[in-house]
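Re-running the complex after MR caught last week's input typo. The corrected sequence lines follow. Everything else is unchanged.
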Amino acid sequence: MRVSRLMLATLRDIPADAEITSHQLLLRGGFIKRVASGIYAYMPLMWRVLQKITSIVQQEMNAAGCLQTLLPQLHPSELWKESGRWQGYTAGEGIMFNLKDRQGKELGLGPTHEEVITSIAREIISSYKQLPVSFYQIQTKFRDEIRPRFGLMRSREFIMKDAYSFHRTEKDLKEKYNKMDEAYKRIFEGCGLNTVAVEADSGAIGGGASQEFMILADSGEDSILTSQDGLYSANLEKAISIPKKPLELDGKDTYIIQTTNQKSIEEVCSNNKLDPSQILKVVAMLAITQEGKIQPLLLTIRGDQDINETKLTNAIETELKQNILSLKQITKDGLISQGLSSNWPFGSLAPDLSDDLLINAKTWERNFLRLVDNSAAELKSFVCGSNSIDKHRKFMDWEKLGGLPKKVDIRNSKAGDSCVHDPDQKLLERRGIEIGHIFQLGKKYSNALNATFTNEQGIEESFWMGCYGIGISRLAQAAVEQHHDESGIVWPIEIAPFEVIVVIANINDSNQQKLGEKIYQELIKEGVDTLLDDRPERAGVKFKDADLIGIPWRVVVGRDAASDKVELVNRANKQTSILSSQAAKDALYRDISNKS
RNA sequence: CGGGGCGUGGCGCAGUUUGGUAGCGCGGGUGCUUUGGGAGCACUAGGUCGCAGGUUCGAAUCCUGUCGCCCCGACCA
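Corrected-run output:
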């Protein structure tokens, strides 16, 4: 391809609406154009990158025995109602774009494809003899994100590879899961990326074991906790750890301490010579379920710890056996709108707060779901609220509070905590961009959609399912986030839009022109993805553009063209060597064939 | 949705406080010069100042409404 015909439109200034480097560089290099918030056009250079990623993914998926398909983007609501996800995905803060057709039938624009693939599997798979089987597709998905941001990192329309596997046994599923784990590692390595695999929550998709693949970057939206020895790493949502030891509180005889105007843990501590680890933090919240139930919650955790909403949501779902749509704080306004007294002793709440406070609630459940985090449950003696304003109780224990509520892990792990696998190891916190996620779904969807096969005994059984995603367009931008310098993008050669750019320094010099053309033609003939910068620009402009768009190798045909000498420049390390044109080509063939 | 910010040629911005001929840099076109790290000179094209209403002799500027975009939080590949 000739740069003169490429519609290359690079920008010198940083577009105002791009925050992170990778987004800025993709816009400046003309790789993407924003069409609306969270909706982007992939321009020719970007499309080449996406195609390269796609082909690496296809190769590994095919090698892992997955069958490529292309599933519809328009999904009938019936399927999503069968799985029970229609309401959650469309109502309120749901992320599924949805519409009605001319008959008034409701349709959703696919954010993910469990329902579609499961409904197909139930029709075509009837016997254990057909199992296992895995399908995958690479295509555009739609999610009406609450807040699109950072270009392709969180867009409303994006390209994703998703795969779904069907098995007769859990063991078989686990084997596949491990195989996919390996395939994923090869894919990311094949794309020239450094990734970290972390344990993850399975989130809205639901199911069992799950693992995310992260690209480490300060701009990442996820927090990752990793042990120093590298043996443990998990997403913050999922991470478990041992919190630091609480300071002992010695004393058996409970008494009231006056805590006037001391609302926060910090205030109570500094005024009464206490440590946050000696205090119970009690939080009143509401959980809104998919069935419309509004459940008041009374949550207790150690004062120096924080609640993890993902773990909390999971714990409540287990308790209530209903899906949670959202969680929110109980506020005075909320109490008033329920016709309840707004005089709750916020700031002095205790785990034994009476259900009587809810007795006149209009739409809320009239009792608290009480949960206590392990960190608080383990305290022998502690300070806690007294359920009356400005008073706390010192030297309390769980017996005096009428026993321990349901014990759960709803605590955020944090940097500095000890690891479970080895308490001598401390957790470190880093930021990451999630580019892949593999799940063991189990039977959640096959049960919901009644997708069964007949086993050897002639008995119908639901499929064991797995699901495996890679954000193709996000991966492309994450690659830029990981590989760039002050001059622009430094594409890993495996996914670069072109492998080589031949720059004719001065197009008016016929020696340069002829030699440049010749090298270009020969590289093309050898199957090297080559770009020829044949524009009548000054050399400096062409160098700047080549650096910005990040082509891994640059061949400069310039002053010494008459004596068949060219310059070979490595974009990543800026190393330059002056070679005969043949030697330069040989060097390129060597490097590029090593990589592919 | 809550909080913050911004909409002025393709891109980056000034002008808005205090109403009075719409400006600068980059980019585009033409010509001459230059030709290895975003060249110089000259000429030139390109703007309903997001949109709608209002106030005023007069609105980019003041008022009201509305739409869009970006950032921080809840969502996720």
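None of the earlier attempt is carried over here. The CA atoms of residues 289 and 324 of chain A lie 4 Å apart. The first strand of chain A starts at residue 32 and ends at 36.
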